[in-house]
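cron nightly-structures :: item 1 of 1
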Amino acid sequence: MDFFLEYQWELFVAAEVLSLISLLLFGYFRYFLGKPLTSTLFIFRFFRLSNSRSLTRFIFI
């Protein structure tokens, strides 16, 4: 638990960067490569990261 309290901002920034990358990969696979099934993987990763960030904010506030 001390790890999360000590590095909460670093973990938050990492989750933000990963969610941005997931959205960019979603758009790339969906619109430039025309692979909607593969792009679904990246949008679900984005939703999962968004949900995990909200849960960590709830726990630490």
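cron nightly-structures :: done
The chain has one domain: 18-60.
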